[in-house]
Amino acid sequence: MKEGTERNIRLIALDLDGTTLDSAGHLPAENKAALERAIAAGVNVVVASGRCRQALPEEVIQIKGVQYAISSNGAMITDLRSGERIYMNCISKDAIRRVKEIVEEHGYMIEVFVDGTAYMERSIWEDIRDNGIDYRRREYILTTRNPVDNIIGFMMDHDEEIENINFFFEDMAEKPAIGKVLSQLEDDATLTTSFDHNWEIGGKTTSKAEALRQLSGILGVETEEMMSFGDSPNDIPMIEAAGIGVAVGNAKEPVKEAADYITLSNDDAGVARAVEKFVFGE
Which of 179, 185, 219, 221 could pair with 189 in a Cys bridge, judged by C-beta atoms 3.0 to 4.6 Å apart? Predict the structure, then answer.
């Protein structure tokens, strides 16, 4: 692609953590300005996050003109203006039952996303509150996770409406072994990861890409008119589904390999640079 090549972009899909947000979890002013400029030019700017709906940052979803949010790795699409859920794609009851068996056998720590909200075991939440946590942002956990007394019982009580199950662990050396166990679920669910210390289970056909296809159909946007941004493996389907898939400079290597273009890092407002390039030809 030539520098300064303007494209007919009508929809921009944004991963948040590690992509649109900087390493401190904030929205750089340059990104905000570029997105506001794109919206003013008639582009649909869509959040596409692994976060549940209630954990989406206000500084992004309050940008005037941001109307739609894809959350829980594609399990939900919300019209932010009306609050209406216009699409849902949850995990099957059979897969939930198998997750229960795996968690009880191996003792994995999990979070469960239901109705746009994330829940975790109260004892773990309280330990993070009292003693901190090294591999995740403490304040993010305390403000976006709701503690319950029995996360397995809670999961089974809501087994028809679970959007996502997040398995998290401190020691990254455990990741391959945990992934191998969870791969048993791949006939009935999707297995992906959004940061170094987790695995995530979603519905069998759930992905940011599938949600983006659903939304683009509603909006009448063609594949070649979409640009998507990401940094982690859960973003790869969305990057591959868009006419222009963009990886930020800090993205994992498989994400860069899947992308059409690699922009600057999330700490260098890489989203703004790619918007300027492909939307405005600068």
Answer: 185
Q: How many CB atoms lie within 10 A of CB 12?
A: 27
Residues 177 and 107 both lie in one domain = yes
Torsion angle (degrees, nearest 10) of CA 177, 183, 185, 189: 120
Residues 75 and 215 grouped into a single domain: yes
Q: Are 50 and 72 in contact (CB under 8 A)?
A: yes
Answer whether residue 4 is part of any domain.
no
**Angstrom distance (rounded) from CA 91 to CA 280:** 40
Q: pLDDT tens digits, residue range 183-227?
A: 999 999 999 999 899 999 999 999 999 999 999 999 999 999 999
Within a domain: residue 107?
A: yes
Question: Among 186, 203, 220, which residue terminates a domain?
Answer: 203
Q: What is the pLDDT of residues 61-85, one digit of tens each?
A: 999 999 999 999 999 999 999 999 9
